[in-house]
Specification:
By secondary structure, the protein is an alpha+beta fold. The chain folds into two domains: about 50 residues, no CATH class; about 90 residues, Cytochrome c-like domain (Cytochrome Bc1 Complex, Chain D, domain 2), CATH 1.10.760.10. Helices cover about 20% and strands about 10% of the residues. The structure holds heme C.
């Protein structure tokens, strides 16, 4: 399906069957396999093709600037020791784009092309933070910084408790 570029914002109106809660300008098609669409440039045409996105993003209140659906409020993680985290598993989660993807924002040792948006996590071990503190950062950093750009991996159910324990062990091990 081809749409003019300037139609991007209103593409959904022409294309889609709307569920009441989605914003009117969201790229959603209830009949697409994943419901969420993504624009693809059609070379030399001035047009965009709308293709099914690989994941269903409709539960996320981030489909457009008009999306006013509420997000779950910041949550205390309620960490209980002992940590029982696996450093190697934590590292794998941190580097996996479909899971933690921490590398997109943070410099992690031994990795090429890290992100530079987040704090440097090199040498984290020497900072001497408690496991509970680090666990909370990953679970939901909004308690410490309400305007953080870091996703609340725990509150939003993006990672399991064990994933966050493994990541905590990994971050705490960084030299
Ligand atoms: C979208 C970018 C982004 C992603 C993805 C991200 N972070 Fe962050 N993180 C940040 C930013 C930015 C900060 C600090 C400032 C803030 O809160 O906005 C931060 C802070 C932290 C802190 C606290 C640092 C300190 O000074 O104590 C830890 C620990 C941390 N992140 C770990 C992780 C881990 C582990 C992951 C992957 C599961 C991750 N982050 C994913 C952006 C990100």
């Amino acid at each position: 399906m081809h749409l003019p570029l300037y139609g991007l914002l209103f593409a959904g109106l022409a294309l889609c069957a709307w569920a009441g809660d989605w914003p009117a300008d969201a790229a959603v098609d209830a009949h697409a396999p994943t419901r969420t669409l993504t624009p693809k440039v059609v070379v030399n045409s001035g047009r965009l093709a709308w293709e099914p996105y690989k994941r269903d993003l409709t539960p996320w209140p981030s489909l457009s600037h008009l999306d006013r659906r509420p997000t779950p409020p910041p949550q205390a993680a309620g960490f209980t020791p002992p940590l029982r985290g696996d450093v190697a598993r934590g590292r794998a989660i941190a580097l996996d784009p479909a899971r933690g993807n921490c590398i997109a924002c943070h410099v992690l040792p031994g990795e090429d092309w890290p992100g530079s948006l987040g704090h440097l996590l090199l040498g984290y071990r020497k900072r001497g933070h408690s496991d509970a503190y680090v666990y909370q950062q990953i679970y939901d950093r909004r308690l410490i910084n309400p305007n953080t750009v870091m996703p609340p991996f725990g509150t939003f159910g993006l990672l399991t408790e064990q994933d966050i324990r493994d990541l905590t062990a990994y971050v705490q091990s960084l030299d």
